[in-house]
Amino acid sequence: MKVLVLGGDGFCGWPTSLHLSDIGHDVIVVDNLSRRAIDLELEVDSLTPIRPMGERIRVWKELTGKDIGFVNLDLAEEYDRFAQLLIDEQPDAIVHFGEQRAAPYSMRSTKAKRYTIDNNVRGAHNVLAAIVESGKDIALVHLGTMGVYGYGWSGSAPIPEGYLTVKVPTPDGDIEREILHPANPGSVYHLTKTLDQLLFAFYAKNDNLRITDLHQGIVWGTQTPQTALDERLINRFDYDGDYGTVLNRFLMQAAIGHPLTVHGTGGQTRAFIHIRDTVRCIQIALENPPAAGDQVKVFNQVTETYRVRELAELISSLTGVDVANLPNPRKEAAENDLNVSRDKFQALGLNPTLLSEGLLEESRDIAQKYAGRADTTKIIARSVWNKGMETSPDLVK
Ligand code: NAD
Ligand code: USQ
Fold it and tell me: Fewer Cβ in 10 A, N or C end of the chain?
């Protein structure tokens, strides 16, 4: 099938583009390279030496003979060009990764909050409106987040895959209704994903668009079989206080002997998935779209859950590096349980890479190999959720 990968230059989008191309799909990446621009703004760089988009595509062609197209286009700002692209290319499906995805970046300033809302919500709406305008039956797979549910849900009932059945009391007795799980975002970034959900529900109902929303946990790891083929295809690895996610940050910190930056007690429980499973999940979602007229299909795209302090203790025990309990720059529950339904992908054949299998390889092949590229001044998270909150001093001078 012909697939547009929106945000196909990013951490999840690049390996997905290669995977889809590898299994025979005709892939076109659409990306405005804003993530690379934010690296320049923050004066940081991927730990891994990522190559420019043109070179990535040339190397893939050289190694496999397969073409990947590239269109440099801003989804939020260039509606007409995007709408024309759908008419010109007539894709069968769109995978939408093209949003500003860092919670700390989204909270660092008023400017960043406004950018994140404008970029993500306008971009998602433009994609939907352009599909309708094209008149074509284009299936949409969007990358959402586990964070739409929030972390206030505890107890033995697992977080369902998108929808919750509730009893509504009426004078004539209780009636049952299925509703979208209540949204409880923890950052402006996560807020955009909850707003996206309403856009999708409306367009599925009003225009019969076929939409899948993947509520993904924190992605860890770097390489997939395709990105590992040649160093010039390497995937990005973010380790800085805004874009680095917790497990990859701890691996990189251990590789340079930096104390592990646990926020608060580390009692936050989060959901995780390896990048190799992300790309498989996208393939499975593309192969199992909803029918026209169906409600939005939601999958929880997670394979394991861990507490942050469990991850720190594990990596500390493997490497001997210290654990530092820092003031938490975020407004979030200090301790939470997390019980997540994750049956749908497993039923469709996902065979996950678990932390116990992938951790040493990740540490050796990426964190240690590229440790010399790390800038230690960029490690501490300095974006605070509101004015009264503390940031931590640098732990390594
Ligand atoms: P990323 O920042 O590495 O990639 C996003 C890509 O989208 C970048 O290449 C960027 O240039 C592009 N982009 C952003 N705004 C755009 C616009 N207006 N027009 C065109 N291109 C635009 O992020 P990622 O880690 O690959 O995440 C991809 C998606 O998956 C995001 O929507 C994110 O919310 C979701 N997600 C990521 C994780 C994770 O741990 N990385 C976890 C859950 C969900
Ligand atoms: N944390 C630390 N120390 C660190 C970094 C993070 O203790 O050095 C803690 C945070 O306080 C938080 C948890 O680890 O409690 C997770 O933080 P994170 O930065 O790894 O992940 P998060 O901000 O939630 O965002 C990431 C992606 C986002 C995606 C989300 C999935 O950047 O795009 O949507 O994971 S989820 O968390 O399931 O919502």
Answer: C
Confidence of residue 55 (pLDDT cuts 50, 70, 90): very high
Contacts of 258 (CB under 8 A, 6+ apart): 321, 376, 379, 395, 396
Residue whose CA is at the smallest distance from ligand 2 atom 16: 246
CATH architecture of 2-229+273-302+340-353: 3-Layer(aba) Sandwich (3.40)
Residue 158 has pLDDT above 60, yes or no: yes
**Inter-residue contact 199 to 129 (CB < 8 Å):** no
pTM flag (> 0.90): yes
Tens-digit pLDDT profile for residues 184-238: 999 999 999 999 999 999 999 999 999 999 999 999 999 999 999 999 999 999 9
CB 130 within 8 A of CB 84: no
Using H for helix, E for strand and C for coil, what is the string for 286-310? HHCCCCCCCCCEEEEECCEEEEHHH
Which residues have a Cβ under 8 Å from the Cβ of 63 and sit 6 or more positions away? 229, 230, 233
Q: Is the CB of 134 under 6 A from ligand 1?
A: no
Other beta carbons within 10 Å of 207? 12
Question: Is 189 near ligand 1, meaning CB less than 6 Å away?
Answer: no
299 by Cβ neighbours in 10 Å (0-12 / 13-18 / 19+) ranks as: buried
Q: Which helix (H) or strand (E) holds 312?
A: helix 308-319
Half-sphere exposure of residue 295, counting CA atoms within 13 Å on the CB side? Answer: 10
Ligand nearest to the CA of 5: 1
Whether 221 lines ligand 2, by a CB cut-off of 6 Å, is: no
175 burial (CB, 10 Å; 0-12 / 13-18 / 19+) is exposed
**Domain boundary assignment for the chain:** 2-229+273-302+340-353
